[in-house]
Design a protein that fits this description.
Blueprint lengths: L2 H21 L9 E36 L4 H17 L4 H25 L3 E31 L2 E7 L6 E7 L5
Antiparallel strand pairs: 1-2, 1-4, 2-3
Helix pairs in contact: 2-3
Amino acid sequence: MSRSFFWVLAGLALCFSSLVGAQSGSAVRGESVRYTYATVLSAVPVYETVRYTEPQEECSDERVVVRERDNGTAGAVIGAIIGGAIGNQVGGGDGRRAATVAGAIAGGAIGRDVDRRNGPNRQYEDVERRCYTVDVEREERRINGYDVEYRLKDEVYYARLPYDPGNNLRVRVEVTPVE
């Protein structure tokens, strides 16, 4: 193995070890920052109330009065028979036939009109289902975070975190001289 190749490998190994050391969270010479774990004493959930509206379909059964008029068919038939009989009594020969047809037509029209005005009208109640969309206001309690009490060495600290840290909490310790 040549000397230059050896020095290249040694340089790469040195660069790799410094990168791995910086990424693992260990303190780099000259920095006064390190990471450690604190003991969690308590983690109390903090709730918030959220209000929102959502559409909801509401249905109800409503009574409806339905009215139907008689269409006058029975009156038209009876009127046509009576009108035809009366027309048949008038005239003779071809005039009798024309008078019978004219009497049937006129009697049918009059009978239908009379039946519509004076005939029975049906009226009944029915139930219709009607649905509407309405906005319903709702409330929901959600966890907003955790008030955490933790101990590092002999000191107790407090923090609000967005998650439950469990039994141990990773903390960043930075030491800076005071002037």
